[in-house]
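Predict fold of dCTP deaminase; 176 aa.
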Amino acid sequence: MILTGPEITESVTDGRIAISPFSPDQVNPNSYNVRLGGTLMSYRDKVVDAYRPNPTETIQLPEDGYVLQPDQLYLGHTEERIGSDIYVPLLFGRSSVGRLGLFVEITAPIGDIGFHGQWTLMLSPVQPLRVYRGMKIGQIMFFVSSGEIDLYAGKYQSAVGPQESRYWRDTMAVTS
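Predicted 3D structure, encoded as tokens:
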């Protein structure tokens, strides 16, 4: 079951969902619009290694925007800090942003119950595209869970800004 816009608002009011900052004009019929935060990150090397930390470059979005280039992955983040200990959040790109040729999340739309933080966005344009801090870039929907809840306590908890992959940490035990 998916929450409606009014239920999202009520859940923020009574604390079942945390969204900060919260703006009623970002509530949709069954989702909440999220805005692009001010920092992007990209990997510096041509080859990214899943089993090792990868050097990154940080980009602060200027007021007049920043042009994303095709064949480049940019890690962005939501302006909002979002989480719930009750509902399962899912992040999707907005259709109007998709129509500009921008993939907002690539393979990881589902958030864990108990995660609270800024969401990392995996931005991949099909052609050069200028983006701006604060633009409505995605939407989060909240689903009712069934069964016992085991709250997220993973490596991205309380994220602020874009977070590079920490997959290599999971593989250290396997490769050691």
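The helical segments are 5-14, 95-98, 167-175.
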